[in-house]
Amino acid sequence: MKNTAKKLLGSAVSPGIAIGKALLYQGSDPGEIAPHRIQTDQLDAELRRFKGACHEAAQEIRDLQAQVEQEGSKESQEILSAHLMMIEDVDFHDQVEGRLKETEQNIEWVVYDISHSLMQTILASPDPAFRERASDILDVSRRILCRLLSVTVVSLSDLDRDVILVASDLLPSEVLTMNRARVKGLAMDMGGNTSHTAILARAFGIPAVLGLSRATAEIQDEDLLALNGQTGELLINPSPSELEALEKERLRYSQRQEGLDRIHDLEARTLDGHLVELKANIGIPEEAEGLLHYGAQGVGLFRSEFLFLTHAEEDSKEAADEETQLEAYIRVLKAMGDLPVTIRTVDLGGDKILPGLHTAVEKNPLLGWRAIRFSLSMRDFFKTQLRAILRASVHGRVKIMFPLISGLEELEEALGVLEEAKGECRAKGQPFKEEIEVGVMIEVPSAALCAGILAKKAAFFSIGTNDLVQYTLAVDRGNEKVSYLAQGLHPAIIRLIKMTIDAAHAQGIRAAMCGEMAGEPRTAALLLGLGLDEFSMAASSIPLVKEVIRGLRVKDCQALAAELLQGDSYEANRAILDKWAAAHLPKE
Ligand code: PEP
Ligand code: MG
């Protein structure tokens, strides 16, 4: 039965209005699996369920095999054959049966437990190629578990109709591999404005409302949805008059966008002549090709890890390949001509998990094996990336940036690995630019507090407010329950930004910002007043921020920053900025 009309409210994270049919996506994650005892007389039935699930999963793989055979992809065929062998492996079946009888626990837990131990053994292997097989085990075990638990698996890459995607949560890799031409809007229970799914939705221009809490509970497949990425409203089966109002709003939005398009050739210069650099954040090379249209003066943040995540569902080994990376970096450099491109070395870990490398479950992934920590402990992987960037450097103006630096030791160690990579390029006669600039992301409170120390070894800083807010205010950036606390205007954040910019300038280096705060038109005046040199943001935000900057005077911005530096709470600062914005910013 069709749902009645209803309205949900979440965080508006990617602008635009989408109207269309819902697709409820449950993903391929079977969810939490817990052990429980079963009766001895149920053992045979449990075993039969397991055999049935394997049979269905094997059939599904055979169907996929037939599909890829037509496409002629040899790699996909090999992977699927290996998966089929695993599902039908006699030893595996014997092991499951033996463990079931021995422990008398539910079959889901037995399958989960056996595959988990197998993955751990594989991951402990010194052979990187063998370690990658862990992702196949994960894939196969999920396939069987989904059958056992009756979780429907829909592949987002095969969508053949326009949809508004409704999910509890989506992995960044799922957003990267979905058929983006078919996803007209995105509604999620979880996630906040700075979650990576939100960042990708903005990058791809997909209107999105996250943090809706009950979207998957309230919405049914095929419900008509109207999603407003400006207000955070999601209407379920709206009335004709509501639809009409939204259509009007959609028209207003596109007219305003067209107005902004006209300023793309103008400089981001304040009324009193101060020139600001506005750059774009990108996640995949294709994005670079549209940047000049928005007036981007370079790429301030290339989240290089998305290169690996894009391939995660296929073969991360291929993505890690030096030549594949080199090609991707050159593509971006060529698209940007002589404009600078800052490539951030991979920020894998946290919510950006690479199957095959990251299968070990961490209790606190955001405080764990992430970003520079991951790279420093995966030397060959790290050096491969650095060599690819160095080799790309002769094709344009490339800069390197290290993520999540927490102190001097990490920076020095990373710089040491870079020197090794340079030595290897020299030994092979591969040319690169010796004077390549190396910067540091300031996104951990300790880095901001020690910015004066780090500035001596860095060519530039880029402030990552998404993580700086997360770690300073102890608020998980992807958790909608606490996202109200993710406040860039918190006095602690404003003070840390000021310390970072001052430390950079005292050492004669530039301070940029590539966190989402840099793309908020309302905070541009504050950041300018604090002395920020460069803003890097989603390309679509550049015209909006530029329009604001062109109406500002540096002296006024400095007065505003001084006032906000005195503010004693987020609420007080928000009130100050609201008043200021009403008096100085263009009306919507
Ligand atoms: C940040 O933390 O602000 C940042 C730009 O990096 P990411 O969002 O990729 O963590
Ligand atoms: Mg970050």
What does this structure look like?
The chain is of the alpha/beta class and 588 residues long. The protein is built from 24 helices and 16 strands. The protein has an eight-stranded mixed beta sheet. An eight-stranded parallel beta barrel has the order 9-10-11-12-13-14-15-16, surrounded by six helices. Helix 16 links the parallel strand 12 and strand 13. Helix 4 runs antiparallel to helix 6. The longest helix is centred in the N-terminal third of the chain and has 29 residues. The protein is globular and about 80 Å long. 46% of the residues are buried. Magnesium ion (MG) binds next to helix 19.
Strand and helix layout:
Layout: E1 6-9, E2 11-14, E3 17-25, H1 43-71, H2 74-88, H3 90-103, H4 107-123, H5 128-131, H6 134-148, E4 163-167, H7 172-177, E5 183-188, H8 196-203, E6 208-210, H9 215-218, E7 224-228, E8 233-236, H10 240-261, E9 277-282, E10 299-303, H11 305-310, H12 316-320, H13 322-336, E11 340-344, H14 371-377, H15 379-392, E12 397-402, H16 408-427, E13 437-442, H17 445-449, H18 451-455, E14 460-463, H19 465-472, H20 491-506, E15 510-513, H21 524-530, E16 534-538, H22 542-549, H23 554-566, H24 570-584
Parallel strand pairs: 3-4, 4-5, 5-6, 9-10, 9-16, 10-11, 11-12, 12-13, 13-14, 14-15, 15-16
Antiparallel strand pairs: 1-8, 2-6, 3-7, 7-8
Helix pairs in contact: 1-2, 1-6, 2-6, 3-4, 4-6, 13-15, 15-16, 21-23
Phosphoenolpyruvate binds at residues 301, 303, 347, 443, 464-467, 514-515.
